[in-house]
Every structure is written in C-alpha cells, then in structure tokens.
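Researcher: Quick test of sequence recovery. Tokens follow.
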C-alpha cells in the first residue's frame, strides 16, 4: 500500500516534478564533472608537470654542507665525492618505484675541445677550453628484479631540445651547445676532438642543444666517455630524478624523526616528495637526496588550487540544487495541505506522512541524480579533453557518490517542507482555514 501511494503521488504534477528533477540533474551534472576531473586531474597534472623536469637532486653525502638562505639551498654540487653508477637500478626497488618516471646521472669534466677550422683546410684546429657533460640519453638500466628500465636526460630535462638527434649511449657521438656551435662553426656530421690529459677522443656531432642556459656553451657526451675522460669509470657526480608526487600538506612537511611509528608509516606510504627522497637515500647509501623546491612547491600550489576550485564549483552546484528542491517542495506541500489533512484524519501518523513525502523525494533524487550523472560524464569528457588533453573515464564509484549526493541534497532541501507537512492539523485544514 505504501509503495502504491508513493507511485501514485509521484505520477501526479509531472511538470513540477520535471522542474525539480531538471534542477537536480543540472546540479548533479556539475558535481559529476567536477568530481570526475578532480579525481583524474591529480595524476594527470602530476604527469604533465614532469615536463618541468626533475624534482629531486641526488649528490654524494660527503658534499652535504647545510647552507640554506631564504628557503634556497646553496650547497655545492660540483666538487667532492663520486657515486657508483651500478647502484642506480636500486631506484626502481623503493616503495614508490612506480612513481619514479625517470633519472639521469651527470658527470662534468673540464676538457679541451678541438674543432676543425672554418673554410681553411690547412689551418690548425681551433682549441677551446670547455666543460664536457656526460649523461644518458636513452639508457637501459638493469633493475635487481630482472626488469630493464630505459631512462635518461630526455625524461629528466625535457627542456633540453636537440636540433638533430641525441647521441647513442654506447657510440662515439655528442651534441654540442647551440652557442658553442655557432661560435666555432660546427655543423651536424662534423667530427670534434675532446682532450683531457692523455685522453684524446674523436666524437661525431649528431645535433645542437638548445636549453636557454649555460649548457648551450658546452658539449654533452655519453656518460661512459665522460667517465673515461675523467678517469672515473662507473662513477657520476649528480643524479636528477623525476618522480610523481602528492602535494605536501602540513602532515607531509613534518620531520619524520619526530613522528610516532604509526605516523611514520602513514607518511612513508604517501608519495610526498620528502618521503620519496628518504627512500632514495635508503636505496642509494651515501647519498643526499634534495628536493628541488621551486619545482615541487610550484606543482603543489597549482594542484591544490585546481582541486580547491573544482570543490568550490561542486559546492555551489549542490547549494543551488538544494535551494531549487526546497522551493518546489515548499510549493508542493502548500498545494497538498488538504490531502495531508485528509490522510491524518483517516489515521495516518506524522511519521507516515513524512515517510511518504520523503520516499517521493528520494525517488525524485534518484531519477535526477542518474540523469545528472549521464550529463555530467559528457561535460567531464568535454572539459577534460579541452583543458587536460584527455577525458576521464566513467566510474561506478562516482556514480554511487552522485546518487548519494542527490539524495542528501534533496532531503536537505526539503527538510523544512517535510517538517511543515508533519505539523499540518487535519481539522482546520479540512475546514479550509
């Protein structure tokens, strides 16, 4: 009987119910789009931010001279101890190994560059003192579990653009900085000589390096050749790491040494940049992993602001839907006062009356929520494609959350009207008073 009364009540005054369902659908559509994009935007933006380059710098612990002024770390990274290249595969064994998207070791060596004279075949080669940078371009790294991970400076320094192609990591090739190439008249395909003490290595130029920085006046070579020049086989000086991270909140900024065991486990199992830095130090003994703060903090601020904006839009949409539901439910109760009075005169209690109208509102919420979810998925795909270049996928979790939100918003918006319905007195109402 109760369900028949609800169905009969729901089938009447369809125009008003259609108006309420439309308001709910619009509110839930905005909520669906915002929730879908918000859940997807973190990982997507984190991956997009990797185009900014590495956010961690690993150096030998022996070089660690704490010198921080105004939040900027001025510790030297170019002198002192060296680190073993053979340990780098251990980076893919840490707890957050899947968040390590790339790493590249660097070794800087002072050398002399000999370039052929421009337009004078019989003239002596031009001698230029210069810093040679050794690194990887696309280098396969053997991980202890047997997997091979390919990485290099193309992943950690994506703003290093090469006109031509990168050198092969096992070839006698190099890329030269654009400024040096212009000054020395070097062209793609030329051979230059790199000399450091007794070492004299001929290298074929495969491309020109554009970085808008000091690297444009250097020569970049495979790491093994730089190690040969420096007399440091299998060693490097600096390591740049690019990792997907979660923006640090107040808990993430705490000193792990002051945490209780349960707090430390929670901090360690969250991909904070500081947590990943600690895990790198544990995987590579004798290292000091520093956060490149300007990159990490910039990413965190943008992610936080985008998420806050999406949540603000969601709350505004839910509030508008609640107000629309409240207005239409109030009008419905006023129109149906006689019906409510008659129900009470026939013996219906306050709880029964409230349950009847609440069930009608819940059914309306489910219809409006389902329609809003379908509309919201289309809106989310358009928004995701336009802003982030990829559309979020439908999720049953979001569908359930939207239906729950629709029910909550409907009941909250009609709470005052339900209370007013419960207070209707049958005798005065039936007399028309």
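Model:
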């Amino acid at each position: 009987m109760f369900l028949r009364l609800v169905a009969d009540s729901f089938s009447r005054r369809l125009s008003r119910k259609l108006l309420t369902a439309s308001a709910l659908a619009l509110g839930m559509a905005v909520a669906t789009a915002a929730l879908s994009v918000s859940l997807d935007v973190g990982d997507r933006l984190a991956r997009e931010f990797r185009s900014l380059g590495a956010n961690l710098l690993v150096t030998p612990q022996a070089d660690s001279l704490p010198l921080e002024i105004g939040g900027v770390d001025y510790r030297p990274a170019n002198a002192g101890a060296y680190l073993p290249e053979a340990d780098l595969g251990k980076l893919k064994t840490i707890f957050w190994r899947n968040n390590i998207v790339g790493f590249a070791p660097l070794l800087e060596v002072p050398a002399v560059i000999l370039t052929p004279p421009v337009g004078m075949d019989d003239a002596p080669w031009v001698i230029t003192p210069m810093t040679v940078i050794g690194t990887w371009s696309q280098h396969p790294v053997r991980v202890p579990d047997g997997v091979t991970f390919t990485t290099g400076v193309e992943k950690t320094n994506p703003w290093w653009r090469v006109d031509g192609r990168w050198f092969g990591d096992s070839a006698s090739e190099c890329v030269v900085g654009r400024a040096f190439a212009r000054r020395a008249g070097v062209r793609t395909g030329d051979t230059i000589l790199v000399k450091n003490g007794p070492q004299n290595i001929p290298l074929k130029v495969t491309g020109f390096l554009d970085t808008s920085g000091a690297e444009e006046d250097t020569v970049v070579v495979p790491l093994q050749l730089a190690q040969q020049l420096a007399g440091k086989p299998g060693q490097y000086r600096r390591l740049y790491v690019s990792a997907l991270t979660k923006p640090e909140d107040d808990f993430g900024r705490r000193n792990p040494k002051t945490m209780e065991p349960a707090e430390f486990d929670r901090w360690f199992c969250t991909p904070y940049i500081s947590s990943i830095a600690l895990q790198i130090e544990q995987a590579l003994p004798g290292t000091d992993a520093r956060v490149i703060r300007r990159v990490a903090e910039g990413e965190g601020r943008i992610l936080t602001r985008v998420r806050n904006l999406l949540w603000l839009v969601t709350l505004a949409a839910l509030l508008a839907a609640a107000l629309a539901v409240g207005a239409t439910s109030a009008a419905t109760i006023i129109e149906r006062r006689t019906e409510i009075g008659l129900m009470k005169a026939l013996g219906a209690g306050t709880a029964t009356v409230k349950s009847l109208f609440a069930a009608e509102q819940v059914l309306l919420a489910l219809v409006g929520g389902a329609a809003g979810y379908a509309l919201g998925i289309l809106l989310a795909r358009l928004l995701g494609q336009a802003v982030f270049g990829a559309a979020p996928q439908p999720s049953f979790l979001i569908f359930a959350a939207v239906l729950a939100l629709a029910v909550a918003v409907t009941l909250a918006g009609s709470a005052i009207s339900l209370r007013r319905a419960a207070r209707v007195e049958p005798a005065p109402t039936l007399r028309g008073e």
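The chain has 13 helices and 16 strands.
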